[in-house]
Every structure is written in structure tokens, then in C-alpha cells.
Amino acid sequence: MPDAYGDSAGAGTATGDDIPRAAPTPPEDTQPSAEARADERRFRIYTMAVLTLGLAAAGAVSVWLPFDGSSHLWWIGPLLAVAFLGAEQLGVNVDVRSGISWTISFTEIPLVIGLLVAPFEVVLAAHVIAGVATLLARKVTGRVLYNAGAFLLEVTSAFAVAGVVRQALGSPEYMPWLAALAGTLTAPLASTLLAMAAVRVLRRRMRVGTVVRLAGRILVVGFVNASVGLTGYLVISKTPEAWPIVLAVSLGLAALYWAYSDLLREQRDMEALTDVSLMVARSGQQAAARPAGKVDDIADDVDLDEWSTIAERIRDQLAAARIVLRLRLEPDEPMRTVVVGDEPATPTPEPGSDDPLLRLPGSHVRHLRATEANPQIRSALLDRGASEALAVPLRSANQLLGIVEAHDRLSRWRGFGKYDVQLLGTMASHLATALDNRRLLATLRHDAYHDPLTGLLNRPGFRQVAAEPLREAEHSVVLRVDLDVFSTVSDALGYTWADRMLMAAGRRMRDSLGPAVPLARLEGASFAVLLTDGDARRAQEVAQRLRAHIAAPYPVDRLTVEANAVVGYVATSAGENAERVDVDSLLQRADMAVRATRGGEEVKAYVPSMGQIFLRRFQMVTQFRQAIEEGQVTVHYQPKVALPGKQVLGVEALVRWQHPEFGRVDPDEFVPAVEAAGLVGVLTSFVLDTALDRVRRWLDEGLRISVAVNLSVRNLADADFPSRVAESLERFGVPGELLTLELTESGVMQDPERALPILRGLSALGIELAVDDFGTGYSSLAYLRQLPVDQVKIDKSFVFGMGTDLGDLAVVRSIVELGHSLGLTVVAEGVEEDLARDQLEAMGCDVAQGYLISRPLAEDRLEAWLQARTVRSLDRTSEAVLTLLT
Question: What is the CATH number that goes with domain 269-448?
Fold first, then answer.
């Protein structure tokens, strides 16, 4: 039966927000709010009304149904009291929704039997004594009078309805089973009406549909329980020896109730865990999708809103009055506090304060009660306006990531139980893992878009940050600043002092520009600045000021180094911005302006006449096909070696151009020009055929050495490219596994829907696919799993600094672990020192490539290198392998 001293479908149905509960005593220095005091006054009046009505109704029914028992049945009263106590202790609590719980109790069984065998006064006394004793045993003393009135009205209404039905059936001498059944079903309905009235008194709302559904469930469960009790009584009264069967049926019914409640609880817990995990994952993805360097109040508000939703879901599952999340969302930032639910009596203490709940050791859930805790814990709970709390620290590798607190379960008597502790512990584990992953992602993303030396944006970061302001600005200016004493300092004093000069120059520029202006270190001693609120005149002023600041002397140890700087800038109009001038083009023009500074002119604006460089590019593009035919363009090879076995696994094919007029042309100069002119197919086919021919000759010599060829973004837009590669493999008789095609992730993500089918077609040929320059793309972690790749190549910018920069070392280690977790081979570029090779080998990196092994070599020099530095042997498959000599 739904009763008044359980989380029942009667008086206890609408618990928490919908029903009064025992409120904690506020601390001496705090006062409850005016609204809370008004609610308390209204409920005291309502309590007295319920108690008065219960006493009056009990007196009226007692007169109407006078006591007619006999003294030899004195044992019925104590037996019924024990039965009521036992039935309530065996109750099964089911959470319906936040703040509403429904107890399937068995008090209908002793009540229906009491209606049949005992006088009204005896049943009433047994029920009240059992109910009050239960409340006192559970230390719920704040609502005893209200519950006592509810107990009186439950039994009184049951006997009143049973008496009316008995008279209607014309049976004044005994209680018919139908009358007992009707009276039993009346008791929970009376309890429910009291609960709904309490909701209205406290000015809380509960939907009519919810009330109707709950009343229906009450009647169904009450009817089943009453029927079991009634049937058992009738069977035993006629056949006393049948009591074991009746007991077995009753125990079976209880087992079914418990199994149902456990199943429902597990289902809701799993749903809550899934919801919380998905919410945290989405929060991390949205944070990662923000542009590099974009940290503002709006982003902070979005983060807090997302975590408020997560806290609300946890509160809903635990049926808690309040959830407090204290989280450190980003490394090296203070914790933020999110409070969902009832406002605390005093502001929640901040992390770092002398609060015992914020200094809990370990990472397991603590169940704290004000009535049982030490004075410090009790004071902390009362400061929060809570009588009990679940608290769990979120930790990763002994580092505190946050704290979760759940205050006061929404129930009049039932506090947090073992299932709540287990659920919050599991949720906390999920949250800690998600926060740790989010911090790792933030670190990797920061490192990918920021210069590790100065902390400023790098080129990819500047490109990303500047893209949107350039589209929206009426006028914009891009400045390139070069500290041209850098190489001199490096040669004279070493790179350590040169790096210190760069860091000092970056700080000077940041102080001059302010925190809001995008500032990047491009490479070497070159910096870039974006101004979106100025014209050419302001650009000239800013350029002069920056040059003056960073050209001031630099104190280096006991020396003072005189520095010099040059600035080139390009200003765009609204019309040019409408045409979406990209960042790289503006940087290129600013670089032209820097190169045009001569004869003491340190600041120069870009003018179209500086476009002579484009003429050079035009000449290279128009002469490219002829250069291939005449042998000016050649392919060099850089070996790749396995770690730790030192076997030569393959080579990377790198294009070189020895121009008769311009001399040796750097690939960084002519490859972009060839791509822009639409000749990348010619270049790729030349390199691919040359490389496959070399592999074929190695196969004829009994060697299986693979070759890697770089792809352009334009190759990934060519639907016929896989078929042409397949034709080349067939023509040279080279198996697909001996060809590796390298691509940059930024190239793939320009048009992923178009590129992915091309990559899948290449992968179907057995070709190895590698992501080049990994760690410098747009969102490597977010998109890597979508690509059908086999290898990742760590960008050499991270490998260079491994020996001296712990940040670079951590990034490389993270990429190695990430690649292996995805089943990928990890290749490190730019290995130039023994220390770097040893560190990579210790991390488990698979392949190394760099000047430590060999520079890119022409074909004839590569053959000489292989003969001089390798030893040839047979492996277990009788295939020849080359191993570096030590």
C-alpha cells in the first residue's frame, strides 16, 4: 500500500520539489529566504489541518463502528503492528522522475486482513504506531505530525468505505471480502490526495497527466497486493494447512517487485550514464571546433551552459535537491563552479578555501550526513544548506580535475542509498576520463596552432584565426615583421641566446599590440600581425611603432645586442575583402614588401610593381613541361629506417629542379606554382612513374623497398586518379603494398566528401596511405579516424625540439600513442640527432626519417649510399633486406 511514511505513491509520491521534506537546520549566521519561511508557515498550517481532520474522522468512525472485540484477541493489535512494520521494511522504491519516487509496499496485505479480523481502533493504533516508529527509526522527525495525520486518514477512510459497502451489501454481522477490498484501495487514494494538496500548499506544480498515471499505478498495485492478502486469508481460514502455498505466492510476488525495480533502476542508470557521456563528448568536440586562440566570454558561457545541462541530468537521475560541479575545463585555469537546483543558503565555497569537502582525498564517493559527521563536515554541509551530501573528487594521475557534489535526495525520509553512491561513482569516472581527454585535446590543439618557443600563433593558427576577420572587415592590414639580426646572433652566441631574443621580441610585440590583435611567429625570426580596423595610414603607424619596439637593444648576458627589424605590410579594401583574399596571399604580398626593403628603408608597403616574383613563377610554370622533358626535373630519394631494427624499409621520392636560368629552384617555390597552374597531374605522374621504375629495378635485384610519393590536394579532387595509379602499378609490375601515397590532412579536409572516395579507391589497390605533417592540420584528432590511412608522419617541427622542449616531447609521445591506438604505423620526420632517434625508439615509434640517416639523394648517390652503409641479408621469407651498418 502507498503509505505516508515511505516514498510512496500516496503522501510520499510527489517528493522533493512537489512535497515537503524535513529541512536542515540553517547555521546560526544564515537565515532562510522569505519564500522558504512562507512555505514553512503554510505547511505548518496544512499539517495541523491534516492532523485535526484525521483525529475528527477517527472519532466519528469510532462512534459509527464501536469496538466489539474480546479480550482473548489482545494479540491481534501487536501482530498487526509488526505486520505493518515488516511490510514497510520490505518496500521497493522506484524512481518515476526527478523528485518523484513511488514505493511498492505491502501494507495493503495487513490492512485488508485487519479489516476482516480486527476492530477499527486496533488497526488504527497498529498503523499509527508502526508509521511513527518507522519515521523515528529513520531519524525523520521534521514531519511526524503531518504523517500521523496522514496515517489516521488512511485507516479511517479505509474503514469508512468498507463500512458503507458492507451496509450496501446487507451484511451487518461480518465484513464481506468485497467491502474489505474496497476499503483497502481507498487508503492509498486518500494518501495521494493529501500529497497533491501538499503540492498546492507549497505552490509547486505537478501535471494532471502525471497525477492520473500515478493514481492508476496505485490502484493496480494496491489491487494486486490486497488480492494476495485477501486470497491468502480466505484460503488459510478454510484450509489452515495451505499457509505454505500462500506464503510462497507472497514471496514470489515480492521477488517480482524487486526484480522489476532493479531492472528499472539499471535501465535508468545506463540511460543516464549514456546521456552524460554523450553530453561531455559533445562539449569537448564543440570546444575543439572553436578557432585557434578564440577564448572569450561567449565561449565561457557556452561551456557553462553545456555543463549545467550535464549537471541537470545527474540531478535528475539521483533525484537530488542540488548538484554542484567544480571543474577545471582547460589546463592552467581556475576551476569554474556550476550549481543546478535549489540555491544554497550561502554562496558555495570556492576551490582553495578551507573547506573539508573540497579537500577530500582519493577519488571515491563519500556519503556525508550532518547528523553523523564530525564538526567540520557538519559545518560545511550546513553552510551549503544540506543535511546530507555525496561528494567525489575527479582525478587523473593524482591531478585534481574537479569535484562533484550532490546535496539532499528529494525525499521525505529516504536519503542517498548504495545505488546512488555506485551511480555517482561511475558517472564521476566517466567525467574524469572525459575531462582528461578534453585537456589532452586542448593541449594537442594548442600545440598544433601555436609556436612552442614564443607561445604565439604559428602559421596554421594565424591562418585560421585571421580567416573570419578578413571576410568581415571593411579594411584590413597584414604585416610581416622580420628580426634580421637573428642569424647573426645564432652564429655568434648559439641558438639558445637567439631563442631568448625571439621570445623577448614576441613579448615586446604583444605588449605593443595588446592581447586582442592576432600575432604569429611564422618561421625563424618572422612574425605576422593582422589589423582589421585600420587603413594604410594606420598600418604605417603601427609598423613604425612595432619596428621601433623590437629593434631596441637586447641585453644578452653581459652583452647588449643591437638589433634591427624590417616590416612589410599589405592593406586590403572592402572590395578586395569581398573577393575573399586569403591569408596566405596577403602574407605573400607582405613578404614581397619585406624583401623590397633596401638602403635603410625599414618599413615598406606592398605595391603591385612588386609582382615581379609572379613573373618568375609564370616563367617556371610555362617552362615546367619542357623542364621535365629535358631532364631538369629529377627525383631524389630520402631513406626511411625501421626502429629499432634499422632495416631500410623504403624511401620518400622528392622532386628537384635545376633551372638553367634561376639555378636550383626550391620545391616550396615551384610546387605551389605548378599546383596553381593545374599541372600537378603532370608532376605527380612524372614522380610516380620514376619512383615505380626504381622499385621495379630493386625487385629485379631481389630487394623489396617501398617508395613514398607526395600527393597534392588537386590529386584528391581527380576522380580518375585511382585508375591511373592502378595502370602505373600494372605497367611496372609493382605490388600496391610497395607504394605509399602521402597527403596532408589540411588538403583532405578542404573537400572531405570529394576526397574520401578517392582515398578509398587508392586503399582498395593495397596502397599504403600516410598523413604527412601530422599535428599541423586543422583538426587532426577529430578527422583522423574517418580517413582510410595506414600511417601518420609526425611533423618535423615537433621532432626538432624533442631534446630541449618538454612540450614537443609530450606532443610526439601523444601522437605515437594515438597512432598505435588506432592501429597505424608512426613515422617521424626530421630526425637529425642521435638523442631524438633514441627517444623515438623508446616511445615505440616505428620508422625514422631525417638527416641523421641521410639527406635526399639522387638515384646514383642513393645506390652508392646503400652499398656503403647497409648490409644485405635474407629474412624468414627468403626476401633480401638492407640493414644499416652500426
Answer: 3.30.450.40
Q: How wide is the angle at C-alpha 123 spanned by C-alphas 120 and 125, nearest 5°?
A: 105
Mean of the pLDDT values across residues 12-34?
37
**What's the Cα-to-Cα distance from 825 to each of 169, 647, 847, rounded to whole Å?**
86, 15, 8
User: What are residue 650's DSSP bridge partners?
Assistant: 640, 706
Structurally, what CATH architecture does the domain formed by 453-606 represent? 2-Layer Sandwich (3.30)
For the residues of 435-461, what is the DSSP string, one character each? HHHHHHHHHHHHHHHB-TTT-SB-HHH
Nearest to 556 by CA among 599, 606, 495: 495
- Mark out the alpha helices in 239-394 (DSSP H runs): 243-288, 297-318, 375-383
CA–CA distance, 459 with 450 (Å, rounded to integer): 8
Q: Please give the span between the terminal C-alpha atoms of the chain, in angstroms, as a whole number.
A: 85
- What class does CATH assign to 16-238? mainly alpha
Q: What is the DSSP letter of 294?
A: -
For the chain, the average pLDDT equals: 78
Domain ranges of the chain: 16-238, 269-448, 453-606, 627-873
**What are 65's three cell numbers?**
463502528
Task: Report the pLDDT averaged over residues 740-757.
Answer: 78
For residues 560 and 563, give the distance between their C-alpha atoms in angstroms, rounded to a whole number.
9
Report how far residue 97's alpha carbon sits from residue 268's, in angstroms, rounded to the nearest whole number.
Answer: 10
Checking DSSP bridges between strand 791-794 and strand 768-774, what pairing results, if any?
A: parallel
Look up residue 783 and give its three cell numbers: 578527422
Q: Which residue has the cell 480486527?
A: 118
Q: How far apart are CA 402 and CA 391, in angstroms?
A: 11
The number of helices, as runs of H, and strands, as runs of E, in the chain is: 29, 25
For 647, which DSSP code? B
Distance of alpha carbon 251 from alpha carbon 255, whole angstroms: 6
Rounded (10°) angle between helices 108-117 and 76-89: 160
DSSP string, 585-642: HHHHHHHHHHHT--TT--EEE--GGGGHHHHHHHHHHHTHHHHHHTT-EEEEEEEEEE
Domain 627-873 has CATH 3.40.50.720: no
Q: What is the pTM of this model?
A: 0.43
Of 641, 665, 639, 666, whose CA–CA distance to 651 is shortest? 639
pLDDT digits (tens, 9 = 90+) for 583-615: 888 888 888 888 777 656 788 888 777 766 667
Return the amino acid letter for 491. Answer: D
DSSP element (H, E) containing 478: strand 476-483
Q: Which residues contact 699 (CB under 8 A, 6 or more apart)?
A: 733, 734, 738
Give the H/E segment covering residue 672. Answer: helix 667-676
Side chain identity at 515, as an amino acid letter? P
8 A C-beta contact, residue 551 and residue 481 = no
Closest CA to 712 of 763, 753, 755: 755
Axis-axis angle for helices 243-288, 418-449 (nearest 10)? 10
| 305-347 confidence digits (pLDDT tens) | 777 878 887 887 777 888 888 887 666 677 788 888 776 655 6
Cβ–Cβ < 8 Å for 61, 157: no
Within 8 A by CB and 6+ apart from 20, the residues are 39, 43, 143, 146, 198, 202, 412
Among candidates 606, 609, 522, which has minimal Cα distance to 569?
606
Q: Are strands 739-744 and 768-774 parallel, antiparallel or unpaired?
A: parallel
Looking at the chain, the whole-number percentage of residues with pLDDT higher than 90 is 14
The answer to whether 783 and 749 are in contact (CB under 8 A) is: yes
